[in-house]
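JOB MANIFEST
job_type = single_chain_structure
chain_count = 1
residues = 382
[input]
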Amino acid sequence: MTIVVRPIDPSRHLAFLDADGGRADASFLQTPAWGRVKSDWRSESIGFFRESGDSGTPDGELIGVGLVLLRKVPRLKRWFAYLPEGPVLDWAGDDVTDALKALTKFLRRRGAFAIRIGPTVVARRWGTDTVKAAIADDGVRSLTAVPPDEHDPAAARLHHTLRHLGWKPPKDAAGFAAGQPKFNFWLPLKGRSADDVLKGMNQLWRRNIKKAAKLGVEVSEGGPDDLGEFHRIYVETAERDGFTPRALSYFQNMFAAMREEDPGRVRLYLARHEGDLVAATLWVRVGRHAWYSYGASTSDKREVRGSNAIQWRMITDAIDAGCEIYDLRGITDSVAGDDPHLGLIQFKVGTGGEAVEYPGEWDLPINPILHKAFDWYMNRGK
């Protein structure tokens, strides 16, 4: 049997993601709609086919898909090929080596000078109690120094395979300003009711959810016309937390592209207290996986706990949608008391979830000279 990679229609790409009630391991960054969101990149849907005489289909069995984002080198017809949190493959299966070779062959012919992938197999997990203990221990500065509660041998095999085939992790998980987080925080939902999830939260979270309800915080779904309100307090959040905000047009494009693909793909939530907007978030779902994608809150009225109320609404809606994972997205591995990001992991661990580690993003420099030059070009001025 042979694995080949070919372009596929976006509808076939989506059908693969939606098969059997929807996948739990496919990122929203690997949907065709994401290619329209990242309009400054060229994008293409691809399929991985296992060809054999008894596949039952003329072009072979479709065993994986991917969204490839392509960025052109100035003045050259050469491309950097990026599959954020992808491709979507069975990373524990027997076809990984052949699939990676087929991907390389396909993109080399497309003129790629380098490829970046981000497998979403979970390499290690640290449960709530383990994370809390690490935070409380002054002698521990990183989760990586703490034995995980679970580790997946498939991720170790994948690491060995990637090294053997010439793939390399980007230095310090940086480069091209395109990277996705290696460490994320998940709240497992499979087989759990809202009451069960609430009982698993810490006392502070339960108290804040109850307090928000008592004080009259109301959470509602918004539409495209409400994105301006979201963006107003998102910019306020950026100024307070010291990051560069995206333009309103980015969110308008994201909302339109994802809703056109699937009306239930993205939702805007707005938390108000006595008519005042106090928090707003974007929620994204693919199959049985939901994400807290973007969030914003005001400096005023923080005592009404709008952020807890809006998170609880997103969590319960994820349960109602049949999701197995509510993904609070990126964290750092640091649990040091003097780390400015410690508050973020403390907020997330209060949900009763777990820290998970992906293998990280890996580069294959097909043309090492162009790869190095492009890295410099994308990171100039940092």
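[summary]
The CA atoms of residues 83 and 117 lie 5 Å apart.
The first helix runs from residue 10 to 18.
exit_status = 0
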